[in-house]
């Protein structure tokens, strides 16, 4: 369980890091942020590897699907980052107008729909190389990591005023 929590916290940095990177002064190198992102990706992969108990044959089929899923998930993460930044900008400008709140709310709901759609699209791919129980285990791992990330973000994002 401790391994999971550590990896989940690192995964939180993975989603938040690009947003934080936008706030750094231009004279600082981005190398440190890139190193952090690479470490987070590796730690997440390590967490998944340790919890999937894959046979050699399953691993051959699973890891390319995993990598493709992570790439597609990054597109969703980028949308989330943009939406959070847009909310932060609106929030810092004063009370958020209803039209802005509606637009941001619609985008967050669309992002959540995209996450569910992504999982649904990958289930058949995963089930070609894994049993249903291992496919479910992988989706559980992804969901737990996403829940930890979202919880961490929710703590720092103020409510709309």
Task: Briefly characterize the structure.
The chain is mainly alpha-helical and 161 residues long. It is built from 5 helices and no strands.
Helix content: over 70%
Continuous helix count: 5
Counted beta strands: 0
H and E order: HHHHH
Question: Main sheet, how many strands, which sense, barrel?
Answer: none
Cα-atom radius of gyration: 17 Å
Distance between the termini: 37 Å
Assign the structural class, choosing from mainly alpha, mainly beta, alpha/beta, alpha+beta, or little secondary structure: mainly alpha
* Portion in beta strands: under 5%
Shape: elongated
- The total domain count is 1
Which runs of at least 5 residues are low in confidence (pLDDT < 50)? 1-14, 16-27
């Amino acid at each position: 369980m401790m391994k999971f929590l550590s990896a989940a916290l690192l995964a939180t940095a993975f989603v938040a890091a690009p947003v934080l990177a936008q706030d750094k002064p231009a004279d600082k190198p981005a190398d440190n942020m890139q190193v952090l992102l690479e470490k987070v990706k590796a730690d997440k992969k390590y967490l998944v590897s340790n919890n999937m108990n894959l046979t050699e044959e399953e691993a051959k089929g699973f890891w390319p699907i995993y990598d493709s899923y992570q790439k597609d998930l990054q597109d969703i993460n980028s949308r989330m980052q943009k939406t959070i930044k847009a909310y932060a900008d609106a929030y810092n400008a004063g009370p958020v107008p209803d039209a802005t709140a509606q637009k941001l709310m619609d985008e967050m709901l669309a992002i959540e729909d995209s996450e569910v759609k992504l999982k649904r699209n990958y289930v058949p791919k995963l089930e070609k190389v894994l049993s249903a129980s291992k496919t479910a285990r992988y989706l559980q791992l992804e969901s737990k990591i996403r829940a930890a990330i979202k919880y961490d973000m929710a703590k720092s994002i103020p409510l709309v005023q």
